[in-house]
Design goal:
33% helix; 20 strands; alpha/beta; six-stranded mixed sheet; Rossmann fold; 3 domains; UDP-N-acetylmuramoyl-L-alanine:D-glutamate ligase; Protein-Tyrosine Phosphatase, Chain A
């Protein structure tokens, strides 16, 4: 892609938008950034952009700004239904996302991982496995650095391991991972995609540009995901927690095995009790990582060593502390109902569950069968609280906490020795927090503050 002298508009000045704008400028493009947020809210980024000769349009999008471009690069947080984008699409103006832009320049081979849940853990684990095996590797995408931020350090003999969201996939065209992974597909982001069918189609774009010699890893235990095999132009490999499969990774007699082909003999990788992560969903994440890393050429012993030393990613069923016999877990990344189900399933009983935030057109009634016997009470927070209460009425005691600090306080007061206080909100965070990381950090701070108080009380007694 030749960018020198081209007029390029970056829409949305989030982390990936900022990185894309600076990259484009270094490539010699005439860059403009447009964001609906005010100049005051963008203040920390504007000086760096102007210093590089990048024009900034803040406080709204101007249609003329959009029309006067050779290329538009859209940040993941900006929907393609934005009126100005709809208008310029009619004129045939090229519109791509930051991932697509990066794909034109990224060197080496790529593992790209998507799914409704488990993306971050699986991506981080794949990166750790490749690193343990001595491969040059960079990890980014929807976590860490934007994909465009990996370009300059990428090398022909290296790997890029990327977490890719449905928002990012919407604007891909030629993005072609050597190994694509779809972990699972359950209803999520329906407020953005409009329907589950649209959401599934966005996820499946991860393999749309693959070729027959590329690899696609699918979850054999997930009906929606497994149906993607019929549309795959690449070689399909599977992972399964429930049955022996002919090509891929699976669980058998308490161990994970990998089979390279239908004719190959299964090779043992590691035992299930060597996995340090909590929850059966993490067994699935490990299976996917095992399959992808074996396809990348990593030896079984390196995989086993990397998995055994891997620790939970922050905000993913992360143990925070034990205070007076009560354990606190931070799963702020559980931003949809399916993720919350997986978090609850990791505990057999005694759960005080904190739910709520910004609704994503979710059906919280799916939680009802799981609550009995496992969850002692649900503490609702945020703008989705009323909807959650309506959907769960009668299934479990409900406490209208309103805010996270009050929810932690009420749950801590009610919890008994051996119980668990679990933040697994099933919602986005944007009603009360900047993002799920901010929510998770706030939860941890509240918990650790209680540990300090408890220590002082115990010492005084």
């Amino acid at each position: 892609m030749e960018l020198k002298g081209k007029k390029v508009l970056v829409v949305g000045l989030g982390k990936s938008g900022l990185a894309a704008a600076l990259f484009l400028r270094r490539q010699g493009a005439q860059v403009t950034v447009s964001d609906i947020r005010s100049a005051q809210k963008l203040g920390k980024d504007i000086p760096a952009l102007i210093e590089q000769g990048i024009a900034v349009e803040a406080g709204g999008h101007g249609l003329l700004t959009f029309r006067r471009q050779d290329l538009i690069v859209v940040s993941p947080g900006v929907p393609l239904s934005t009126p100005e984008l709809v208008q310029v699409q009619k004129f045939g103006l090229p519109i791509i996302g930051e991932v697509e832009l990066a794909a034109r320049f990224l060197k080496g081979r790529t593992i790209a991982i998507t799914g409704s849940n488990g993306k971050t853990t699986t991506t981080s684990l794949c990166g750790a496995i490749l690193e343990k095996a001595g491969y040059p590797v960079h990890v980014g995408g929807n976590i860490g650095l934007p994909v465009i931020g990996l370009v300059e350090d990428s090398r022909e003999d290296g790997w890029s391991v990327l977490e890719i969201s449905s928002f990012q996939l919407e604007t891909t065209e030629k993005f072609r991972p050597d190994i694509a992974v779809i972990l699972n597909i359950t209803p999520d982001h329906l407020d953005r995609h409009g329907s589950f069918a649209n959401y599934v189609a966005a996820k499946e774009r991860i393999f749309g540009a693959q070729r027959p010699d590329d690899k696609l890893v699918l979850n054999a235990d997930d009906d929606v995901t497994s149906r993607a095999a019929a549309r795959a132009p690449s070689q399909v490999f599977w992972f399964s927690r429930k049955r022996v499969i002919r090509q891929g990774a699976f669980v058998h007699e308490g161990a994970i095995l990998f089979r390279a082909s239908e004719q190959a003999k299964p090779e043992p990788i590691l035992k299930l009790d060597e996995i340090p992560l909590k929850g059966v969903h993490n067994v699935e994440n490990v299976l996917a990582a095992v399959c992808a890393s074996r396809l990348a050429g990593v030896a079984p012993e390196a995989i086993r060593a990397a998995v055994a030393s891997f620790r939970a990613v922050e905000h993913r069923l992360e143990f925070v502390a034990e205070i007076d016999g009560v354990s606190y877990y931070n799963d702020s990344k559980a931003t949809n109902v399916d993720a919350t189900i997986k978090a609850i399933e990791a505990f057999s009983s005694g759960v005080h569950l904190i739910l709520g935030g910004k609704d994503k057109d979710s059906d919280y009634r799916q939680l009802r069968p799981l609550l009995a016997g496992r969850v002692k009470a649900v503490y609702t927070i945020g703008s989705a609280a009323e909807k959650i209460s309506n959907h769960l009425d009668g299934a479990v005691p409900l406490v209208a906490a309103g805010t996270l600090d009050r929810a932690v306080s009420l749950a801590a007061e009610a919890a008994e020795e051996g119980d668990v206080v679990l933040l697994a909100p099933a919602c986005a965070s944007f009603d009360q927090f900047e993002n799920y990381e901010h929510r998770g950090q706030t939860f941890k701070s509240l918990v650790l503050a209680r540990r300090g108080v408890a220590a002082w009380q115990n010492a005084s007694a």
